[in-house]
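Task: sequence design from structure.
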């Protein structure tokens, strides 16, 4: 049974990580891979505006995808089922060539590994985005993004849809202006489950515990 890869894409401070933490509570056999670790590794070697920084991020993600694909290549009945991975990123595929290259890594992974790939775009009003970005919780988490830089980013760049493309199982944009992280995660969980069910998965919400949910990703019974 193939696994799934859910990319939560959105502007800085939109609430991607908060939503991801809530989403893994709802989806069975689900793990959150915090891509800030990739950014941190690249930042220890290069300045963020150095082209080498973006290239290293791309190469690290390629290595991660290769590791996942190799580890779960065993399709025997006794092999553990691949999990659903939730990742977050800000990829402006229409504005930055390197972001498009990184997105192509996601697509290539889905095409070659058999993993389902769902692209989620979180959007919000400028006012809501700024308020979340400047929140005390985000500032305390050492993710400094100034209001001026955020406004400039929103004016100059856009996330952009990638559908239709082979390997993409679903793409969904959600306006979260009046939604908190838990509500947003609930909406996304239902969308992801519906998308995976259309691909033959037998899967249901895990609730707020991950105990005993691995079997929920068994394939649908044949008729």
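Answer:
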């Amino acid at each position: 049974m193939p696994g799934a890869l859910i990319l939560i894409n959105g502007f800085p401070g939109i609430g991607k990580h908060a939503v991801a933490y809530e989403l893994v509570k709802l989806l069975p056999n689900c793990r959150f891979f915090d891509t800030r670790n990739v950014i941190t590794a690249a930042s220890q070697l290069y300045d963020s505006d150095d082209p080498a920084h973006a290239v290293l991020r791309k190469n690290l993600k390629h290595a991660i995808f290769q590791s996942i694909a190799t580890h779960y290549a065993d399709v025997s009945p006794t092999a553990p089922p691949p999990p659903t991975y939730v990742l977050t990123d800000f990829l402006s595929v229409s504005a930055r060539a390197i972001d498009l290259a990184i997105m192509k890594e996601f697509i290539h992974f889905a095409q070659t590994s058999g993993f389902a790939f769902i692209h989620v775009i979180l959007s919000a009003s400028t006012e809501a985005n700024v308020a979340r970005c400047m929140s005390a919780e985000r500032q305390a988490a050492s993710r400094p993004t100034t209001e001026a830089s955020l406004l400039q980013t929103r004016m100059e760049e856009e996330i952009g849809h990638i559908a239709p493309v082979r390997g993409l199982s679903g793409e969904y944009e959600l306006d979260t202006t009046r939604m908190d992280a838990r509500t947003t995660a609930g909406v996304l969980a239902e969308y992801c489950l519906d998308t995976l069910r259309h691909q033959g998965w037998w899967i249901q919400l895990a609730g707020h515990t991950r105990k005993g949910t691995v079997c929920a990703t068994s394939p649908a019974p044949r008729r």
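DSSP finds eight helices and five strands in the chain.
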